[in-house]
Design a protein that fits this description.
Blueprint: H1 3-6, E1 15-21, E2 25-32, E3 37-41, E4 47-53, E5 56-60, E6 63-67, E7 72-75, E8 81-85, E9 89-96
Antiparallel strand pairs: 1-2, 2-9, 3-8, 4-7, 4-9, 5-6, 5-8
């Protein structure tokens, strides 16, 4: 699998590519076109976000954090958050299912 070749950007919604999923871990890649928003949501498990391409703005509890190419961010469980692409972006999210 090649994330950059297998993830297709969608004009209407975030693009999601499952990289790995089993009973212990879930790894996905998400693609957003410039200006697209991954609407506010929560994850039941802590997650690690890694930006593979572009620049995103991560909004959590009213605090916006810009995460650049190769930047990482620890996402806590059960905290609402939203992601906006400042430019065309791909980021990977890894969640360990506890």
């Amino acid at each position: 699998m090649n994330i950059f070749e297998d993830l297709y950007f969608n004009d209407e919604k975030p693009s999601v590519l499952t990289i790995h999923n089993n009973d212990r871990i879930n790894v996905i890649a998400i693609g957003l076109k410039k200006g697209q928003v991954l609407k506010k949501h929560v994850t039941p498990f802590p997650a690690l976000l890694v930006v593979l391409k572009g620049l995103i703005s991560f909004d959590m509890e009213g605090v916006q954090t810009e995460i650049p190419l190769s930047g990482t961010f620890d996402i806590p469980a059960n905290v609402p958050h939203e992601v906006t692409a400042m430019e065309e972006s791909i980021f990977m999210v890894t969640k360990e299912k506890s």
